[in-house]
Design brief:
Layout: H1 14-30, H2 39-45, H3 48-67, H4 71-92, H5 96-106, H6 111-117
Helix pairs in contact: 1-4, 3-4
The structure holds phosphoribosyl ATP.
Pathway: Amino-acid biosynthesis; L-histidine biosynthesis; L-histidine from 5-phospho-alpha-D-ribose 1-diphosphate: step 2/9
Pfam families: PRA-PH
EC number: 3.6.1.31
Length: 124
């Protein structure tokens, strides 16, 4: 039998948001600095397509580790994905608060309920 659903939305997530916020602030501070001294600066200097390509590559590496059941490597690749996602946010002018707000807006709404409420596509 499936486990009952628990509401976890009351839990304090500030520590998790903190490290991502700090990483975001660091990457943002690297914008326009010497690409020889900062990997983030080098990546942003190479442009949005390169940033997106690197994010995609890291995401694929991450899913390969998940599919293969390699927990340790999945953790490492997940950190790479989050770093490259943050570089993409900085480059695109998206702040962590923008994303947290969207997640907060969705809190408590089951994906199943949300999907069922979408307008049905007309056939034919
Ligand atoms: N979390 C990370 C992080 N994760 C991965 N990487 C780097 O990402 C690079 C990925 O290497 P790849 O060979 O895959 O990519 P590439 O060098 O772009 O090469 P190509 O694929 O284009 O050939 C490596 O150099 C990693 O060290 C990171 N670089 C920086 N950070 C964080 O960002 C902060 C600022 O770093 P700098 O911008 O370098 O000062 C650091 O203090 C860290 O907290």
């Amino acid at each position: 039998m499936a486990k009952p659903i628990k509401d976890e939305s009351h839990k304090d997530t500030s520590a998790r948001e903190d490290i991502l916020q700090r990483l975001f602030d660091t990457v943002q501070s690297r914008r326009g600095t010497d690409p020889n001294l900062s990997h983030s600066a080098r990546l942003m200097a190479r442009g949005r397509n390169k940033i997106a390509q690197k994010f995609g590559e890291e995401a694929v590496e991450c899913l390969i580790e998940a599919v293969n059941g390699n927990r340790k490597e999945l953790i490492s690749e997940s950190a790479d994905v989050l770093y490259h996602l943050i570089v993409m946010w900085v480059d695109s002018g998206v702040s962590p608060e923008d994303v947290w707000s969207e997640l907060k807006r969705r809190e408590g709404v089951s994906g199943i309920t949300e999907k069922a409420s979408r307008p049905k596509e007309k056939l034919g």
